[in-house]
Amino acid sequence: MNLHLTVLLLYAGVLMTVGLWVSRRVRSTSDFFVAGRRLGPGLIFATLLAANLGAGTTVGAAGLGYRDGLSAWWWVGSAGLGSMVLAFWFGPRLRRLAAAHDLHTVGDFLEHRYGRQVRATIAILLWVGTLAILAGQLIAMGFVLNAVTGLDRWVGSVIGGVVVTVYFTAGGLLTSVWVNSVQLVVLVVGFTVVFPLLLGSVGGFSSMHDATGGIDGYWNFWRGGESGWFYLAMLGPSFIVSPGILQRVYGARDDRAVRLGVGLNGAALLVAGAVMALLGMMARTVVPELPDHDLALPTLFLESLPPLLGALGLAAVFSAEVSSADAILFMLSTSLSRDFYRRFVRPDASDRQVLRVARVAAVAGGVGGIIVAMWFDSIVDVLSFFYTLLTVSLFVPVLVGLYARRVRTPEALASIAAGVAVAAVVQTTAEDGAVVWLDPAMLGIGAALAAMLAAMMATRNKPVEVS
User: Fold this and answer.
1) How far apart are CA 104 and CA 218, in angstroms?
2) b vs e for 429-454, b when ≥16 Cβ sit within 10 Å of the residue's Cβ?
3) 186-234 tens-digit pLDDT
4) If you count Cβ atoms within 10 Å of the first and of the last residue's Cβ in the chain, which end, N or C, has fewer?
5) Is domain 3-379 classified as CATH 1.20.1730.10?
Protein backbone atom coordinates (compact mmCIF):
# COMPACT_ATOMS: atom_id res chain seq x y z
CA MET A 1 0.00 0.00 0.00
CA ASN A 2 1.54 3.36 -1.08
CA LEU A 3 1.73 6.50 1.06
CA HIS A 4 -0.96 8.39 -0.88
CA LEU A 5 -3.53 5.62 -0.43
CA THR A 6 -2.64 5.15 3.25
CA VAL A 7 -3.22 8.85 3.98
CA LEU A 8 -6.56 8.88 2.14
CA LEU A 9 -7.85 5.78 3.95
CA LEU A 10 -6.81 7.11 7.36
CA TYR A 11 -8.46 10.43 6.60
CA ALA A 12 -11.69 8.72 5.55
CA GLY A 13 -11.67 6.83 8.85
CA VAL A 14 -11.27 10.09 10.80
CA LEU A 15 -14.27 11.65 9.01
CA MET A 16 -16.52 8.70 9.82
CA THR A 17 -15.35 8.66 13.46
CA VAL A 18 -16.05 12.38 13.94
CA GLY A 19 -19.46 12.03 12.30
CA LEU A 20 -20.51 9.10 14.46
CA TRP A 21 -19.30 10.86 17.63
CA VAL A 22 -21.23 14.09 16.90
CA SER A 23 -24.34 12.11 15.91
CA ARG A 24 -24.90 11.23 19.59
CA ARG A 25 -26.21 14.80 20.04
CA VAL A 26 -28.94 14.35 17.42
CA ARG A 27 -32.27 13.85 19.20
CA SER A 28 -34.85 15.45 16.92
CA THR A 29 -35.63 16.45 13.34
CA SER A 30 -34.72 20.05 14.27
CA ASP A 31 -31.18 18.86 15.08
CA PHE A 32 -31.02 16.75 11.91
CA PHE A 33 -32.49 19.29 9.44
CA VAL A 34 -31.49 22.77 10.71
CA ALA A 35 -28.98 22.05 13.53
CA GLY A 36 -31.38 23.51 16.08
CA ARG A 37 -31.15 26.94 14.37
CA ARG A 38 -28.05 27.75 16.38
CA LEU A 39 -25.29 28.03 13.75
CA GLY A 40 -23.05 31.08 14.10
CA PRO A 41 -21.13 32.76 11.24
CA GLY A 42 -18.06 30.55 11.71
CA LEU A 43 -19.92 27.27 11.31
CA ILE A 44 -22.08 28.69 8.50
CA PHE A 45 -18.92 29.72 6.65
CA ALA A 46 -17.16 26.40 7.27
CA THR A 47 -20.04 24.15 6.28
CA LEU A 48 -20.97 26.20 3.19
CA LEU A 49 -17.43 26.51 1.86
CA ALA A 50 -16.66 22.86 2.54
CA ALA A 51 -19.89 21.86 0.79
CA ASN A 52 -19.35 24.22 -2.16
CA LEU A 53 -15.74 23.20 -2.75
CA GLY A 54 -16.64 19.86 -4.26
CA ALA A 55 -16.03 17.91 -7.43
CA GLY A 56 -17.02 20.76 -9.71
CA THR A 57 -14.94 23.38 -7.92
CA THR A 58 -11.77 21.27 -7.59
CA VAL A 59 -11.29 18.38 -10.01
CA GLY A 60 -13.85 19.73 -12.49
CA ALA A 61 -12.63 23.36 -12.37
CA ALA A 62 -8.97 22.34 -12.69
CA GLY A 63 -9.96 20.15 -15.62
CA LEU A 64 -11.59 23.14 -17.30
CA GLY A 65 -8.46 25.19 -16.57
CA TYR A 66 -6.38 22.46 -18.19
CA ARG A 67 -8.62 22.42 -21.27
CA ASP A 68 -9.69 26.07 -21.66
CA GLY A 69 -7.31 28.23 -19.60
CA LEU A 70 -7.98 31.34 -17.53
CA SER A 71 -11.68 31.64 -18.45
CA ALA A 72 -12.32 28.53 -16.32
CA TRP A 73 -12.47 30.99 -13.38
CA TRP A 74 -16.12 31.63 -14.23
CA TRP A 75 -17.08 28.08 -13.29
CA VAL A 76 -16.31 28.68 -9.59
CA GLY A 77 -16.35 32.49 -9.64
CA SER A 78 -20.00 32.49 -10.73
CA ALA A 79 -20.85 30.45 -7.63
CA GLY A 80 -19.06 33.04 -5.50
CA LEU A 81 -21.00 35.90 -7.07
CA GLY A 82 -24.30 34.08 -6.49
CA SER A 83 -23.33 33.45 -2.87
CA MET A 84 -22.65 37.16 -2.31
CA VAL A 85 -26.13 38.01 -3.60
CA LEU A 86 -27.64 35.42 -1.24
CA ALA A 87 -25.67 36.75 1.73
CA PHE A 88 -26.66 40.39 1.47
CA TRP A 89 -29.96 40.35 -0.38
CA PHE A 90 -32.15 37.26 -0.09
CA GLY A 91 -30.58 35.13 2.67
CA PRO A 92 -31.53 37.17 5.76
CA ARG A 93 -35.15 37.48 4.62
CA LEU A 94 -35.41 33.75 3.98
CA ARG A 95 -33.89 32.99 7.40
CA ARG A 96 -36.42 35.19 9.18
CA LEU A 97 -39.28 33.62 7.27
CA ALA A 98 -38.04 30.11 8.09
CA ALA A 99 -37.68 30.90 11.80
CA ALA A 100 -41.10 32.56 12.00
CA HIS A 101 -42.94 29.64 10.39
CA ASP A 102 -40.68 26.74 11.53
CA LEU A 103 -39.63 25.93 7.96
CA HIS A 104 -36.99 23.21 7.67
CA THR A 105 -36.65 22.73 3.90
CA VAL A 106 -37.10 24.65 0.66
CA GLY A 107 -40.15 22.43 0.16
CA ASP A 108 -41.60 23.87 3.38
CA PHE A 109 -41.18 27.37 1.97
CA LEU A 110 -42.74 26.42 -1.37
CA GLU A 111 -45.78 24.92 0.33
CA HIS A 112 -46.08 27.86 2.73
CA ARG A 113 -45.98 30.26 -0.21
CA TYR A 114 -47.74 28.31 -3.01
CA GLY A 115 -49.22 25.03 -1.81
CA ARG A 116 -48.52 21.30 -1.83
CA GLN A 117 -48.61 20.93 -5.64
CA VAL A 118 -45.57 23.15 -6.10
CA ARG A 119 -43.79 21.40 -3.25
CA ALA A 120 -44.34 17.97 -4.81
CA THR A 121 -43.33 19.11 -8.29
CA ILE A 122 -40.02 20.58 -7.13
CA ALA A 123 -39.29 17.59 -4.90
CA ILE A 124 -39.60 15.21 -7.87
CA LEU A 125 -37.41 17.38 -10.10
CA LEU A 126 -34.77 17.77 -7.42
CA TRP A 127 -34.60 14.07 -6.69
CA VAL A 128 -33.78 13.43 -10.36
CA GLY A 129 -31.27 16.27 -10.59
CA THR A 130 -29.66 15.76 -7.20
CA LEU A 131 -28.69 12.17 -7.97
CA ALA A 132 -26.74 13.62 -10.90
CA ILE A 133 -24.75 16.07 -8.76
CA LEU A 134 -24.05 13.40 -6.14
CA ALA A 135 -22.73 11.21 -8.95
CA GLY A 136 -20.45 14.08 -9.98
CA GLN A 137 -18.80 14.12 -6.54
CA LEU A 138 -18.35 10.36 -6.60
CA ILE A 139 -16.89 10.46 -10.11
CA ALA A 140 -14.28 12.95 -8.86
CA MET A 141 -13.39 10.67 -5.93
CA GLY A 142 -12.98 7.89 -8.46
CA PHE A 143 -10.53 9.97 -10.51
CA VAL A 144 -8.46 10.72 -7.40
CA LEU A 145 -8.20 7.07 -6.36
CA ASN A 146 -7.60 6.01 -9.97
CA ALA A 147 -4.64 8.37 -10.22
CA VAL A 148 -3.24 7.13 -6.88
CA THR A 149 -3.80 3.40 -7.17
CA GLY A 150 -4.68 2.59 -10.77
CA LEU A 151 -7.99 1.10 -9.61
CA ASP A 152 -10.96 1.43 -11.95
CA ARG A 153 -12.70 4.77 -11.41
CA TRP A 154 -15.95 3.11 -10.32
CA VAL A 155 -14.18 1.44 -7.36
CA GLY A 156 -13.13 4.85 -6.05
CA SER A 157 -16.68 6.11 -6.50
CA VAL A 158 -18.00 3.26 -4.37
CA ILE A 159 -15.45 3.89 -1.60
CA GLY A 160 -16.27 7.61 -1.48
CA GLY A 161 -20.00 6.92 -1.49
CA VAL A 162 -19.73 4.59 1.49
CA VAL A 163 -17.67 7.09 3.54
CA VAL A 164 -20.05 10.01 3.12
CA THR A 165 -23.21 7.92 3.55
CA VAL A 166 -22.02 6.49 6.87
CA TYR A 167 -21.22 9.76 8.62
CA PHE A 168 -24.07 11.82 7.19
CA THR A 169 -26.77 9.23 7.87
CA ALA A 170 -25.77 9.22 11.51
CA GLY A 171 -26.45 12.87 12.26
CA GLY A 172 -27.64 14.99 9.32
CA LEU A 173 -26.82 18.71 9.36
CA LEU A 174 -25.50 18.72 12.93
CA THR A 175 -22.95 16.02 12.03
CA SER A 176 -22.29 17.62 8.66
CA VAL A 177 -21.30 21.06 9.96
CA TRP A 178 -18.74 19.62 12.39
CA VAL A 179 -17.27 17.15 9.92
CA ASN A 180 -17.21 19.96 7.33
CA SER A 181 -15.11 22.03 9.74
CA VAL A 182 -12.50 19.25 9.85
CA GLN A 183 -12.66 18.93 6.08
CA LEU A 184 -12.24 22.66 5.56
CA VAL A 185 -9.09 22.77 7.68
CA VAL A 186 -7.55 19.95 5.64
CA LEU A 187 -8.69 21.56 2.39
CA VAL A 188 -7.38 25.06 3.14
CA VAL A 189 -4.08 23.87 4.63
CA GLY A 190 -3.56 21.45 1.75
CA PHE A 191 -4.06 23.98 -1.03
CA THR A 192 -2.25 26.80 0.83
CA VAL A 193 0.84 24.63 1.21
CA VAL A 194 0.94 23.03 -2.24
CA PHE A 195 -0.06 25.96 -4.49
CA PRO A 196 3.17 28.02 -4.20
CA LEU A 197 5.26 24.84 -4.41
CA LEU A 198 3.47 23.78 -7.60
CA LEU A 199 3.81 27.25 -9.11
CA GLY A 200 7.55 27.16 -8.41
CA SER A 201 7.88 23.65 -9.83
CA VAL A 202 6.53 24.76 -13.23
CA GLY A 203 8.77 27.83 -13.35
CA GLY A 204 6.21 30.50 -12.44
CA PHE A 205 3.68 32.36 -14.55
CA SER A 206 6.18 33.25 -17.28
CA SER A 207 6.98 29.58 -17.96
CA MET A 208 3.30 28.72 -17.92
CA HIS A 209 2.62 31.46 -20.48
CA ASP A 210 5.50 30.33 -22.67
CA ALA A 211 4.21 26.75 -22.65
CA THR A 212 0.54 27.55 -23.30
CA GLY A 213 0.52 31.02 -24.91
CA GLY A 214 0.10 29.52 -28.37
CA ILE A 215 -3.26 27.96 -27.49
CA ASP A 216 -6.06 30.15 -28.88
CA GLY A 217 -7.90 32.04 -26.10
CA TYR A 218 -6.05 30.21 -23.31
CA TRP A 219 -5.19 33.43 -21.39
CA ASN A 220 -8.45 35.23 -22.18
CA PHE A 221 -10.32 35.84 -18.92
CA TRP A 222 -13.77 36.35 -20.48
CA ARG A 223 -13.95 33.39 -22.84
CA GLY A 224 -11.64 30.61 -23.96
CA GLY A 225 -12.45 27.22 -25.43
CA GLU A 226 -15.80 26.12 -24.00
CA SER A 227 -15.56 28.19 -20.79
CA GLY A 228 -16.38 31.82 -20.05
CA TRP A 229 -18.71 34.43 -18.57
CA PHE A 230 -21.84 32.56 -19.70
CA TYR A 231 -21.40 30.15 -16.78
CA LEU A 232 -22.79 33.00 -14.66
CA ALA A 233 -26.36 32.43 -15.90
CA MET A 234 -26.32 28.76 -14.88
CA LEU A 235 -24.24 28.80 -11.69
CA GLY A 236 -24.99 32.19 -10.13
CA PRO A 237 -28.74 31.62 -9.62
CA SER A 238 -28.30 27.99 -8.58
CA PHE A 239 -26.07 29.04 -5.67
CA ILE A 240 -28.79 31.45 -4.53
CA VAL A 241 -31.65 28.92 -4.42
CA SER A 242 -29.90 25.57 -3.88
CA PRO A 243 -31.86 23.62 -1.21
CA GLY A 244 -28.68 22.39 0.44
CA ILE A 245 -27.40 25.95 0.80
CA LEU A 246 -30.72 27.45 1.90
CA GLN A 247 -31.14 24.84 4.64
CA ARG A 248 -27.83 25.99 6.09
CA VAL A 249 -29.20 29.54 5.98
CA TYR A 250 -32.28 28.26 7.86
CA GLY A 251 -29.92 26.89 10.51
CA ALA A 252 -28.35 30.32 11.21
CA ARG A 253 -29.04 31.83 14.60
CA ASP A 254 -29.52 35.39 13.26
CA ASP A 255 -29.20 37.62 10.18
CA ARG A 256 -25.62 38.57 11.05
CA ALA A 257 -24.60 34.92 10.85
CA VAL A 258 -26.11 34.73 7.36
CA ARG A 259 -24.40 37.86 6.09
CA LEU A 260 -20.99 37.02 7.54
CA GLY A 261 -21.00 33.27 7.00
CA VAL A 262 -22.47 33.20 3.50
CA GLY A 263 -20.60 36.36 2.44
CA LEU A 264 -17.20 35.00 3.49
CA ASN A 265 -18.02 31.77 1.70
CA GLY A 266 -18.73 33.77 -1.48
CA ALA A 267 -15.45 35.70 -1.19
CA ALA A 268 -13.53 32.46 -0.71
CA LEU A 269 -15.14 30.97 -3.83
CA LEU A 270 -13.97 33.96 -5.88
CA VAL A 271 -10.40 33.19 -4.81
CA ALA A 272 -10.84 29.44 -5.26
CA GLY A 273 -11.94 29.99 -8.86
CA ALA A 274 -8.58 31.57 -9.70
CA VAL A 275 -6.61 28.93 -7.78
CA MET A 276 -8.29 25.98 -9.50
CA ALA A 277 -8.06 27.48 -12.99
CA LEU A 278 -4.34 28.14 -12.48
CA LEU A 279 -3.73 24.63 -11.11
CA GLY A 280 -5.29 23.21 -14.26
CA MET A 281 -3.07 25.45 -16.38
CA MET A 282 -0.02 24.27 -14.41
CA ALA A 283 -1.01 20.69 -15.16
CA ARG A 284 -1.21 21.55 -18.87
CA THR A 285 2.37 22.84 -18.60
CA VAL A 286 3.63 19.70 -16.86
CA VAL A 287 1.61 17.03 -18.71
CA PRO A 288 0.33 18.52 -22.00
CA GLU A 289 -1.33 15.33 -23.23
CA LEU A 290 -3.67 13.79 -20.66
CA PRO A 291 -6.22 11.17 -21.76
CA ASP A 292 -8.92 12.96 -19.72
CA HIS A 293 -8.74 16.60 -18.56
CA ASP A 294 -10.48 15.64 -15.27
CA LEU A 295 -7.24 13.87 -14.31
CA ALA A 296 -5.37 17.21 -14.33
CA LEU A 297 -5.45 17.94 -10.59
CA PRO A 298 -4.59 14.51 -9.14
CA THR A 299 -1.94 14.01 -11.83
CA LEU A 300 -0.35 17.39 -11.02
CA PHE A 301 -0.09 16.47 -7.34
CA LEU A 302 1.46 13.10 -8.14
CA GLU A 303 3.90 14.33 -10.78
CA SER A 304 5.09 17.62 -9.27
CA LEU A 305 5.21 17.16 -5.47
CA PRO A 306 7.14 14.99 -2.99
CA PRO A 307 5.05 11.99 -1.83
CA LEU A 308 4.01 13.41 1.57
CA LEU A 309 2.95 16.79 0.14
CA GLY A 310 1.25 15.07 -2.74
CA ALA A 311 -0.72 13.00 -0.24
CA LEU A 312 -1.73 16.18 1.62
CA GLY A 313 -2.93 17.73 -1.63
CA LEU A 314 -4.91 14.65 -2.57
CA ALA A 315 -6.44 14.54 0.92
CA ALA A 316 -7.57 18.14 0.37
CA VAL A 317 -9.19 17.19 -2.94
CA PHE A 318 -10.82 14.10 -1.44
CA SER A 319 -12.05 16.26 1.45
CA ALA A 320 -13.69 18.66 -1.01
CA GLU A 321 -15.56 15.89 -2.79
CA VAL A 322 -16.77 14.22 0.42
CA SER A 323 -17.99 17.50 1.96
CA SER A 324 -20.03 18.35 -1.14
CA ALA A 325 -21.47 14.86 -1.26
CA ASP A 326 -22.84 15.17 2.28
CA ALA A 327 -24.59 18.43 1.31
CA ILE A 328 -26.26 16.56 -1.52
CA LEU A 329 -27.36 13.69 0.69
CA PHE A 330 -28.83 16.38 2.93
CA MET A 331 -30.99 17.61 0.04
CA LEU A 332 -32.10 14.08 -0.83
CA SER A 333 -32.96 12.97 2.68
CA THR A 334 -34.90 16.10 3.63
CA SER A 335 -36.81 16.13 0.35
CA LEU A 336 -38.05 12.56 0.76
CA SER A 337 -38.69 12.59 4.51
CA ARG A 338 -40.43 15.97 4.83
CA ASP A 339 -41.60 16.91 1.34
CA PHE A 340 -43.06 13.46 0.57
CA TYR A 341 -43.33 11.22 3.62
CA ARG A 342 -44.60 13.66 6.23
CA ARG A 343 -46.62 15.75 3.80
CA PHE A 344 -48.26 13.08 1.61
CA VAL A 345 -47.75 9.61 3.13
CA ARG A 346 -47.92 10.03 6.94
CA PRO A 347 -49.00 13.55 7.95
CA ASP A 348 -49.31 12.30 11.54
CA ALA A 349 -45.82 10.77 11.62
CA SER A 350 -43.89 11.31 14.83
CA ASP A 351 -40.59 13.14 15.00
CA ARG A 352 -38.77 9.83 15.45
CA GLN A 353 -40.46 8.30 12.39
CA VAL A 354 -39.52 11.24 10.16
CA LEU A 355 -35.93 11.05 11.41
CA ARG A 356 -35.83 7.33 10.59
CA VAL A 357 -37.15 7.95 7.06
CA ALA A 358 -34.57 10.73 6.56
CA ARG A 359 -31.77 8.31 7.39
CA VAL A 360 -33.16 5.61 5.11
CA ALA A 361 -33.48 8.19 2.34
CA ALA A 362 -29.84 9.20 2.81
CA VAL A 363 -28.74 5.58 2.40
CA ALA A 364 -30.95 5.19 -0.68
CA GLY A 365 -29.54 8.42 -2.12
CA GLY A 366 -25.99 7.25 -1.53
CA VAL A 367 -26.65 3.96 -3.31
CA GLY A 368 -28.41 5.75 -6.17
CA GLY A 369 -25.54 8.21 -6.57
CA ILE A 370 -23.03 5.35 -6.75
CA ILE A 371 -25.08 3.66 -9.48
CA VAL A 372 -25.35 6.86 -11.55
CA ALA A 373 -21.62 7.57 -11.10
CA MET A 374 -20.79 4.19 -12.60
CA TRP A 375 -22.59 5.19 -15.82
CA PHE A 376 -21.08 8.65 -16.44
CA ASP A 377 -17.51 9.84 -17.04
CA SER A 378 -17.58 13.66 -17.27
CA ILE A 379 -17.86 15.67 -14.04
CA VAL A 380 -18.75 18.97 -15.70
CA ASP A 381 -21.43 17.45 -17.94
CA VAL A 382 -23.27 15.76 -15.08
CA LEU A 383 -23.02 18.86 -12.84
CA SER A 384 -24.21 21.15 -15.64
CA PHE A 385 -27.37 19.08 -15.92
CA PHE A 386 -28.08 19.57 -12.20
CA TYR A 387 -27.27 23.28 -12.03
CA THR A 388 -29.38 24.06 -15.08
CA LEU A 389 -32.35 22.12 -13.71
CA LEU A 390 -32.00 23.83 -10.33
CA THR A 391 -31.78 27.29 -11.87
CA VAL A 392 -34.71 27.07 -14.29
CA SER A 393 -37.08 25.38 -11.83
CA LEU A 394 -36.39 27.20 -8.53
CA PHE A 395 -34.85 30.62 -9.18
CA VAL A 396 -37.98 32.46 -10.30
CA PRO A 397 -40.54 30.84 -7.92
CA VAL A 398 -38.38 31.30 -4.80
CA LEU A 399 -37.16 34.85 -5.35
CA VAL A 400 -40.25 36.32 -6.98
CA GLY A 401 -42.35 34.59 -4.32
CA LEU A 402 -40.44 36.45 -1.60
CA TYR A 403 -41.54 39.85 -2.86
CA ALA A 404 -44.46 39.61 -5.34
CA ARG A 405 -47.64 39.16 -3.32
CA ARG A 406 -49.89 38.33 -6.28
CA VAL A 407 -47.99 35.18 -7.26
CA ARG A 408 -49.76 31.94 -6.30
CA THR A 409 -49.86 28.26 -7.26
CA PRO A 410 -50.83 28.58 -10.98
CA GLU A 411 -48.11 31.15 -11.60
CA ALA A 412 -45.45 29.06 -9.84
CA LEU A 413 -46.39 25.88 -11.71
CA ALA A 414 -46.42 27.74 -15.04
CA SER A 415 -42.98 29.14 -14.28
CA ILE A 416 -41.51 25.73 -13.39
CA ALA A 417 -43.02 24.02 -16.43
CA ALA A 418 -41.89 26.70 -18.90
CA GLY A 419 -38.37 26.96 -17.48
CA VAL A 420 -37.71 23.22 -17.51
CA ALA A 421 -39.32 22.68 -20.93
CA VAL A 422 -37.41 25.45 -22.69
CA ALA A 423 -34.08 24.49 -21.14
CA ALA A 424 -34.62 20.84 -22.10
CA VAL A 425 -35.53 21.68 -25.70
CA VAL A 426 -32.52 23.97 -26.15
CA GLN A 427 -30.15 21.47 -24.55
CA THR A 428 -31.28 18.58 -26.74
CA THR A 429 -31.94 20.27 -30.09
CA ALA A 430 -29.78 23.39 -30.46
CA GLU A 431 -26.32 23.19 -31.96
CA ASP A 432 -23.67 23.29 -29.20
CA GLY A 433 -26.53 23.40 -26.65
CA ALA A 434 -27.20 27.11 -27.13
CA VAL A 435 -29.20 29.58 -29.26
CA VAL A 436 -26.92 32.34 -30.57
CA TRP A 437 -25.04 33.16 -27.31
CA LEU A 438 -27.86 32.21 -24.94
CA ASP A 439 -27.40 28.91 -23.11
CA PRO A 440 -30.24 26.71 -21.74
CA ALA A 441 -30.12 28.31 -18.27
CA MET A 442 -30.48 31.85 -19.65
CA LEU A 443 -33.38 30.91 -21.90
CA GLY A 444 -34.99 28.81 -19.16
CA ILE A 445 -34.95 31.69 -16.66
CA GLY A 446 -36.43 34.00 -19.28
CA ALA A 447 -39.17 31.50 -20.12
CA ALA A 448 -39.94 30.91 -16.42
CA LEU A 449 -40.31 34.62 -15.72
CA ALA A 450 -42.41 35.21 -18.86
CA ALA A 451 -44.74 32.33 -17.99
CA MET A 452 -45.18 33.60 -14.44
CA LEU A 453 -46.03 37.12 -15.67
CA ALA A 454 -48.48 35.76 -18.24
CA ALA A 455 -50.22 33.64 -15.59
CA MET A 456 -50.42 36.65 -13.25
CA MET A 457 -52.12 38.72 -15.96
CA ALA A 458 -54.57 35.90 -16.66
CA THR A 459 -55.54 35.14 -13.04
CA ARG A 460 -55.46 38.69 -11.57
CA ASN A 461 -54.94 37.35 -8.05
CA LYS A 462 -55.43 39.42 -4.95
CA PRO A 463 -52.29 40.08 -2.86
CA VAL A 464 -51.28 37.47 -0.29
CA GLU A 465 -49.18 37.90 2.84
CA VAL A 466 -45.58 36.90 2.09
CA SER A 467 -43.98 37.03 5.54
Assistant:
1) 44
2) eeeeebbeeebbbbbbbbbbbbbbbe
3) 778 888 888 999 999 899 999 999 999 899 999 999 999 999 999 999 9
4) N
5) yes
* Paired residues of 227 in beta bridges: 224
Domain with CATH 1.20.1730.10 in the chain: 3-379
**Mean pLDDT calculated for residue range 35-50:** 80
Calculate mean pLDDT across residues 46-75.
89
